[in-house]
Specification:
GO terms for molecular function: GTPase activator activity. Pfam families: RhoGAP. The chain is mainly alpha-helical. It is built from 13 helices and four strands. Strands 1-2 form a two-stranded antiparallel ribbon. Strands 3-4 form a two-stranded antiparallel sheet.
């Protein structure tokens, strides 16, 4: 900010104003006035940027924020019991996913077109603000006044706005390779599939995916297992809700298994959707509690320590 003479004035509403410059001669050039105007705009822009940075550090949201960051301050712990009946923390999922998942399982499994029909844009905006706001991030949300379509839409938007899909880009091709050239053998013939080549063994492919899932980062792994379980519940009642595994895969594939290099490549969409169909249909082989899928001690400590202290 340029050095200037005088004291800071305050506007009627308390907004800081630039200090007055010493009066110039009567024929002061217009350029000086333009300089003052430009400086004042930059002053306000800089102050706003500093305010935004302060607010962003102290009160972050969850939409568009990396999973590894947001789960540290907006999570729901998944608890299981060991053989002796003692409860332990198995992992964590985002609050928005847990709240929407429970609500949808209770109220929407028999609703035709769920995940496909739009909710109220006004109510969806309210839900976004609730789940995006500290310090509860929607944990105490009351669903009164909201519909299952509102919940379904906000859940989809959360996934689609993640900076990286639930299956990280580093794992993108590794998750697609087991079904490459075997799509129709794995999930049945569908439009746009590549021709099948050679034999396909479903049990071997399931074991490959079990190993891949255990290799995922803990938070990604647990979120993937949670959403596969949710989608499998709705697929099991597709006779009522009309949400077949094919329909569910088409809707959720962008937020689960996608790559920016394939944004305009329909054959690549088809392969990724077929992978998701296979994972949903065989979800019982990847249930939460499968060996090697619990959160490790380091992840538990990081999540429970909360967000890093802002510098």
């Amino acid at each position: 900010m340029p050095t200037h003479v005088g004291t800071t004035q305050r506007a009627r509403h308390g907004e800081p104003q630039p200090a007055p410059f010493p009066p110039g001669p009567p024929d002061e050039p217009v350029a000086s006035k333009r300089d003052l105007t430009s400086w004042w705009k930059n002053f306000k822009r800089g102050a706003q940027k500093r305010d935004d940075e302060k607010g962003g550090s102290a009160q972050p949201g969850i939409f568009g924020v990396p999973l590894q960051n947001s789960v540290r301050y907006a999570n729901v712990a998944i608890s299981l019991q060991d053989a002796e009946g003692k409860s332990y923390v198995y992992g964590y999922v985002p609050i928005v996913v847990a709240k929407c998942g429970v609500f949808l399982k209770e109220k929407a499994t028999d609703v035709e077109g769920i995940f496909r029909l739009s909710g109220s844009e006004k109510r969806i905006k309210e839900l976004r603000e609730a789940f995006n706001s500290p310090d509860r991030y929607g944990k105490g949300l009351d669903w009164t006044g909201y519909t299952v379509h509102d919940a379904a839409n906000i859940l989809r938007r959360y996934f689609n706005q993640l900076p990286e899909p639930i299956i990280p880009l580093d794992f993108y091709e590794r998750f697609r390779d087991p079904l490459r050239n075997h799509q129709s053998q794995a999930v049945g013939p569908l439009d746009g599939q590549s021709p099948s080549v050679g034999d396909f063994d479903a049990s071997v492919t399931i074991r490959i995916y079990q190993n891949l899932i255990t290799e995922l980062p803990p938070l990604n792994r647990q979120l993937l297992l949670y959403i596969l379980d949710l989608l499998a519940v709705f697929a099991s009642k597709s006779d009522l809700n009309k949400m077949t595994t094919q329909n569910l895969a088409a809707i959720f594939q962008p937020g689960i298994l996608s790559h920016p290099n394939h944004d305009m490549a329909p054959p690549e969409y088809r392969l990724s959707q077929d992978v998701l169909i296979f994972l949903i249909e065989n979800q019982d082989h990847f249930l939460i509690g499968m060996q090697g899928t619990a959160a490790d001690e380091k992840t538990v400590q990081e999540v429970e320590s909360g967000p890093p202290t802002p510098a």
